[in-house]
Amino acid sequence: MRPTRITYDPDGDVIYITFGQPAVSAGYQLSDQILLRVDPQAQIAAGLTIFNYSLHASAAREIPLPVIEEQQGDTKALLLKILRSTPLNQFLTIVIRKEGIFANLRSPSLQQAVGG
Questions:
Q1: Contacts of 75 (CB under 8 A, 6+ apart)
Q2: Bridge partners for 3 per DSSP
Q3: Which parts of 1-116 are beta strand (E)?
Q4: Nearest Cα to Cα of residue 104 among 67, 60, 65
Q5: How far apart are CA 72 and CA 64, in angstroms?
Q6: Which helix H or strand E contains 109, and what residues bound it?
């Protein structure tokens, strides 16, 4: 199991989650609130950045992920697979409806990590 490191920047209200050792990764800005980093060789999550963390944690509302909708074929399938797999599924729940694809924060996991 790869170690998970979580860092919270209270001034910027940003949470940074890194899976395993820092490595070269491809970034996918899934929304204006979520950045997913993917190890392109292993095709696994390398990290996750959540902007305006406290707003999302307290509001418990879904975050639309429009960039996934825009992806074609294999890339869309890969992103959905990564988002639903361990360790990301400890921090996000992905919901697919006819209106689109959304993420919900699994706040207890994140709040424990940032001491909230």
A1: none
A2: none
A3: 4-9, 14-19, 26-29, 34-39, 44-51, 63-64, 92-97, 100-105
A4: 60
A5: 18
A6: helix 107-114
The backbone region for 73, taken as left when phi is positive above 0, alpha when psi lies in -120 to 50, beta otherwise, is left
* DSSP conformation class of 29: E
User: What single letter denotes the amino acid at residue 70?
Assistant: E
Q: Is 1 helix (H, G, I), strand (E, B) or coil?
A: coil
Q: Is the full-model pTM beyond 0.85? A: yes
Q: In the numeric block, which tokens belong to residue 35?
A: 């950045």
Report residue 13 as tokens. Answer: 């209200």
Q: Give phi and psi for 109, each to the nearest 5.
A: -60, -45
Residue range 45-70, pLDDT digits in tens: 999 999 999 888 887 788 999 989 88
The encoded tokens of residue 107 equal 């706040």
Residue with tokens 């790869």: 2
Residues in Cβ contact with 115 at an 8 Å cutoff, skipping those fewer than 6 apart:
8
- Find tokens 């001491």 and name the residue: 115
Q: Hey, what are 104's tokens?
A: 């919900």
